[in-house]
Amino acid sequence: MPDNQVSKMIGHPMNQPLSSQLTTACAPYPELSAADRFLHELRRLMPPSYMLVNGTIYCCNRSGKPGIPVCSPLQVSALVRDNNGQGWSRLVQVLTPDRRVIDCVVPHTEVEAKPNDAIARLADCGLQLQGDRYLFLQFLKSWKPTSYALRLPHVGWTPDRTAFALGDGRVIAPVPRGETVIYTGTVDRTTTGRLEDWQSGVATLASGNPYLIFGISLALSGPFLSLTNRTGAIFHLYGENSVGKTKALMVGNTVWPSAGTESPWRTTSAGLEGLLAQANDTFLGLDELPGEPHAGFGDDIYAAANGAGKNRATVTGRAQARQQWRAPVLSTGEAPVRQVLRDLGQSLRGGQAVRMIDIPVMGMTHGVFNDLHGHATSKAFARKIESIAPRSCGHAGANLVRELILSDQDQSIRTTIETLHEIELSKLMMQLGLDPRTARNETLRVLDRFALVAVAGEFASQRQITGWPAGTASEAVMDMAARWFEHSGADKPTEQSSAVERTRDYLLQFGDSRFGILRQRADDPVEAPAARSHEAAGYRDDDYFYMLKPTFDTIHRGQDAKRAAEKLEAAGYLEPGGERNSRQFALSGVRKQRIRVYRIRAEILSA
Fold first, then answer.
1. 0.85 surpassed by pTM
2. pLDDT per position as a tens digit, 99-155
3. What is the pLDDT of residue 589?
4. What number does CATH give the domain 195-488?
5. Rounded distance, CA 279 to CA 536, Å?
6. Contacts of residue 60, Cβ cutoff 8 Å, sequence gap at least 6
7. For the chain, which residues make up each domain, given as ranges?
8. Exposed site from 186, 242, 533, 543, fewest CB < 10 Å?
9. 10 Å Cβ neighbour count for 109?
């Protein structure tokens, strides 16, 4: 369906199309078909000087009789805007030749500046022009609808968190709002079966299988990211081929309306951004991370978790709006991300390690499976999952969102989620024997992400969505977190992480006050540090800190500074400048001098 068309909605009342939400005059005629109700309503609301005769709208002559034919049946049911009060459009309902009612959003800018584009948009939805185009535009503008609607161009939450759009075109809004919400994004997902089918099928087979429970719980965590102002993360299941990793991804995909197939990792950065944007506030599964991905894979990890794409331009050179998202991602592959990056000639940076989290597939009786639920072999069990997964998709996520909205009528849901999160995080810390006062920052950040997954699974279970007993999701997440913790070396302070932490902590404290700002042009003056000159630590721009050697030696006092520079380079945060036998960088243009500094990537601040 083109993205200018609007599909069915879940609103108030439930499961009614947009036309029935905006108009109610046809309610006394339940025996009429949808097309006949539309025509009845059209006759009632038709602007003056127009009439509907034998399926064609006419402009009336002076005697009030049909004159010049205009078009096939059409009505403007609402005026639509975006959340910023811009993007005004008309919501036009068209009766197609096969007597279906299609909703089409037509921007005002097209009607006023590019009328042929507006007509083409409507024609694509089934409109048939019967006469002069100018006469048709007059008719279109003559409608004065009194209903207003908010246009939501992306999957996920509305800004006020009172409605949620799904990729199958539905909008979930169980609580009456001041205005209708319509989804105008791409409709490329489908919902199948019933929630009860999903509970007795996919959710039941997941019981007793921590990897499958984790996959479902991770998919359920999508709406919680925005509610708690958190960013997403990539959880990467790695292990040998044919152990069932894709099945964990497959059951996760059943939580939300399905695209029909699992998305492969083999894509460009721009392609990945599109997948992530379409998974906003829901879930994305990426299958089979190749051993040699494209060179920008390391940057893709940051982008996927940080929730924003690159700045790009149109063919005319104008800047495109950056795609944005918050989405949890489940990834599969044969090798851990550290090894994949090493094969690309790159090192795993601390910031990447907390955004793409390696979970080894091992220790189960049958690959990722522990309980085969009566099937003779893991292969037979996997085939069962493959057969039932496509039959019941999209209901668990939709019901979860409905429960979240209904639970937030007193504006308390965020407090509830954070309280549950603290409980789950405490459980993880206790299980791993960690003290929050001494645990490494990277470890705490990863466990924070695991805890939110547990919250999502437990919340859904409490609301009778999964059918699992209380504690099921929490225990599965603990299992996954323990596997990550054991195999990541997170429990072992390393020389590299120590060098990164000391440098990061100094820059967080003094990055603004002791580093002068380098101007964009070489002949521009340098803005001096605000602190006294004897405290000046170096210079900075948008991408790097240029740290003076005395500052670097002070930070790593008591350690081998040369060794610390080596470890920072290995972590991907220090970039040498080609100086022989040195990891320093020659910075030119500073007070007409070339000074040697340590060039440190600004990304270290989020390490």
1. no
2. 999 999 999 999 999 999 999 999 999 999 998 899 999 999 999 998 999 999 999
3. 67
4. 3.40.50
5. 45
6. 49, 50, 51, 66, 67
7. 5-183, 195-488, 495-606
8. 533
9. 13
